[in-house]
Amino acid sequence: YQRRVRGSQAMSVTLHWNPLSPNARIVHYFTCASKIEVTLKLVNLGAGDHKKPEYLAINPTGQVPALVDEDLNLFESSSILRYLAIKNKSSLYPVHNVQLLGLIDVAYQHIRSTLWETHGNYFFQAFINPFLYKQPPDETKIKEYTETLDKQFAFLNQHFFKRSKFVVGDHLSLADIAVGTLISQLSLCKYEVNSVHNKVVELYKYLQTETSFQQSHEPLWKLVQQFSQNSGSSESGTSAKSEAKVESKSIDKPVGNKIKVSLSSFLYCDLSHT
Fold this sequence. Notes:
The chain has 274 residues and is α+β, with helices and mostly antiparallel strands. It is 54% helix and 8% strand. A 5-stranded mixed β-sheet has the order 1-3-2-4-5, with helices on one face. The longest helix is centred in the middle third of the chain and has 21 residues, at 139-159.
C-alpha cells in the first residue's frame, strides 16, 4: 500500500508507517499540515513486516515510523519531524524564529513526556487488552490512567494557550499536531477530554475541521471500521466502530486498497516509543 501525498515541496522521501500507530500518524499529519510531499509505504504490522531484514535495515528498532530520504534512513518520530520541518522550512516549526521555536519545543516535549505516555497506557488497557487478550480492562489501571490524563490535560489547559486557540503562538504548530494525534487515538476507545479543559476541547474540535487532520486520519478510521466489523459484536469492537463512524463523517475520499487488520496489528503499534 503506497500513497503519494502531494504538496509544495518536491522531495524523494518515503515514510514507512502504519496509521494505527500514533507515532507514525503524527509524522503523516505533520506532512499534510506542512504540505510536504512524501510517499507513504504501509508497514503491515500484522504480517510482521516491521521485523523483516529489509525493514530492519531501515529501522533497526523494528518499529514505526521510519523515513527514507535518498540514502538517508531516519527513525524516532520526533527526530523525523524536526528533520522534515527544518528541511522544508515548515511554519509549524519555525527555525527562523528562535523564541517561538523555544516555546513550541517546550510544549511539544511536555506533551510527549507526559500525555503521550499516559495515553498509550490507557489505550492498551481500554482497547488492546480486550481485543488481544480477550480480557476485560484492568479497572484499577483505567481509573489511574484516567485521573492522570485529566491532571495532565488540566496542566496543558492552564499553562498553555496564552495567546490564541492554539497551544503556542497564533498559528498551528507541531504542539497542536501532537495534541490532535493523541486525542484521536484516545477517541478510539471513546475517551473524551473533560469539558472543563475547554481550550483543549476547542482545539481538537477545530483540528477535526481541517483538511490536514482529515487526510492524515482517513486511513485510521477506515482500518478501525474494518477491524470492528471483522471482530464481531464485542462491546469494545462496537464502541470503536461507532467512534470511527462519527469521526469519519467529514471524510469523502475512500482509501484505495482494503487492508486486513489483525489483532497483532494493534499489539505492535508502538504506543510509547518516541
